[in-house]
């Protein structure tokens, strides 16, 4: 089959979680299976959870198969040189009806050594937050392994962690090692390295329906934690019809686009682009005048070979690529 360059969407991979709810259905129109659905994996090549194309001539084909056959066309020349035919990012929506566990992720070196995996640098874009909703990010002030373990043993860990009230549109950039937790009442979009490695350090002493606690990773986390204070929240401009940069790191760049009308794009073919629609609806119009329609809750992979296109509509988009 010849490569056809068009905007790709994938079948969501939904995950039941002890802390999940129903907002992925009520707010994003996802076809969830339980009232405790916590995650919708939108684009993934994590083993066992590989995305399958939902639209166009490639419908029914896995992303891994496409990457094996058309790596440069999809990933782009620069991304291919760096990652081969691996897709380096994972895109999710999360709905926290209850607090998530307090956790962190190892860096690339630790993740490679222990799990043969990438680390997990990530960012959050808050799509909706109930009144009074908070997240936890890092320590209130510089800490240490001994202080952390003492509070963990005394079940007072939360007292030394930094709680931040959140609202729609807030952005947080979480480098590896940063202790964090999404609080109850928050729904967000998450952009991260392709990794499913999480060190869970406290789970609010809760148990599942069978009375079992979830596994904790206290020892593994000790040398993975960043004990310094972190400044995770990112401020950004919201100029309409402009690519407002909000995060730039070696793993990904994210721009926020308040779309109101039309924007023309001329890409260089070095990286794929992903568009996450957090509000409203829009079209992608290709240089062959084909028109593709998307709405809030859609995550769209634009192959690197699709270099010229137009966005038309009214809404808020996250634009993600690797530079």
From TrEMBL:
Residues annotated to bind Zn(2+): 105, 122, 180
Cofactor note: Binds 1 zinc ion per subunit.
Species name: Flavobacterium saliperosum
Protein's UniProt name: Phosphohexomutase
Mannose-6-phosphate isomerase cupin domain segment(s): 246-320
Annotated catalytic residues: 200
Cofactor (UniProt): Zn(2+)
An annotated Gene Ontology molecular function: zinc ion binding
Superkingdom to which the source organism belongs: Bacteria
Record keywords, A-Z: Isomerase, Metal-binding, Zinc
Pfam families (UniProt xref): MPI_cupin_dom, PMI_typeI_cat
Domain called Phosphomannose isomerase type I catalytic: residue spans: 11-117
GO biological process: one example: carbohydrate metabolic process
